[in-house]
Amino acid sequence: MTSAQPAPDHPIEGSAPARPLSVVLAGGGTGGHIEPMLALADALTRCTGAPGGPPRVTCLGTSRGMETRLVPARGYDLRLIPPVPLPRRPTLDLLRVPGRVRRSVAETRALLAELSADVVVGFGGYVALPAYLGAWRSGVPVVVHEQNALPGLANRVGARIAARVAVTVPGTPLRGAEHVGMPLRPQLTSLDRAGLRAGARAHFGLDADRPTLLVFGGSQGAASLNRAAAGAADALTGAGVQVLHARGPKNTDVTVATRPVGQAPYVVVDYLERIDLAYAAADLALCRSGAVTVAELSAVGLPGVFVPLPIGNGEQRRNVLPLVQAGGGLLVEDAELSPSWLVDHVLPLVTDPAALAGYAEHALAAGTPDADDRLAEMVLQVAGGRA
């Protein structure tokens, strides 16, 4: 396959289209695809100097993903296409994939024509693949953004036909990859952790001046993190460390008894609606190493103890290695995590302000807080025929 060329009616450099550019974003399924998509959407709508004014942004998704809730909540138009899940192993379901792809591509092409799309931006996953193929068949240029250090199938395909390829992690093996970073909300990239700390701790019922550990395993929680943190609760709080623990909405069996009067609190919540306040409240995080999590902690300068998900193709470990090697956090394998490991390694760190400050400085230096604007500029260049 060769790189797609802009359709003849697309604007060229120096032209002044009567309408705003039409940008179609494909990033449904999980928060790892949706959050950077929405951060880019926000950055594009801030581009008042774009040809024809701020671009018109439309998001593609499916009826089964988190995008059905998150995209409308942020004020963006969401159009649904049939999903094309790809089996991880050879099964009879694999025989149904070509038919699903054809149907989804046909519906995507119709949508792109209706929207007069000038560019399609994909973030991987089962929404992106038909979007890439539909754009290619329709002569609409493609921009790919890969969040993980090890790209998935959809973005490997997309990169072969893309006008530009942006990646979060340097060295990501995609054709023509350009390091841009992870697009994040300005609410995070401009977060004043020190200025918000007292109010953030009060928001969660934490004490103002105690060392604070944040434990979270993504939107659904993580069983191994839950077990280790809850098992170390007495040792942590007994040593004066307070804990904010997001267990996941389905993990209601994870409980920690109310701490005795005068001891550091251990606060358990299902989900962190205000992740910005959680980051401001914390001195150290115990978390997975999904691409968005790694990028967010880097952007806000919060050190992390990262526990890569032990399944899949190992992308979570690859995601965090550059940050750990830069001195912005620690890495522990899931099989090694235990209450005693936390007592031996996390407790000394979270109670050492000088060590935390060093990790925080290196984490912040590794971040790319302007990734949303950099990606928006790339997308507008492609949409305007200037890539």
Helix content: 40-55%
Distance between the termini: 19 Å
Q: Nearest-angstrom radius of gyration?
A: 22 Å
Unreliable parts: 1-17
- Main β sheet profile: 7 strands, parallel
Q: What is the annotated CATH architecture of the largest domain?
A: 3-Layer(aba) Sandwich
Strand order of the largest sheet: 3-2-1-4-5-6-7
The named CATH superfamily of the largest domain: Glycogen Phosphorylase B
Q: What is the number of helical segments per DSSP (H or I, 4+ residues)? A: 15
What is the overall shape?
Answer: elongated
Count of all domains: 2
- Mean pLDDT comes to 90
Beta-strand portion reads 5-15%
Provide an overview of this structure.
It is built from 15 helices and 13 strands. The chain has 387 residues and is an alpha/beta fold. The protein folds into 2 domains: 177 residues, Rossmann fold (3-Layer(aba) Sandwich), CATH 3.40.50.2000; 177 residues, Rossmann fold (3-Layer(aba) Sandwich), CATH 3.40.50.2000. Strand 12, helix 12 and strand 13 form a beta-alpha-beta unit. Helix 1 crosses helix 15, helix 3 crosses helix 4 and helix 11 crosses helix 14. The N terminus is likely disordered.
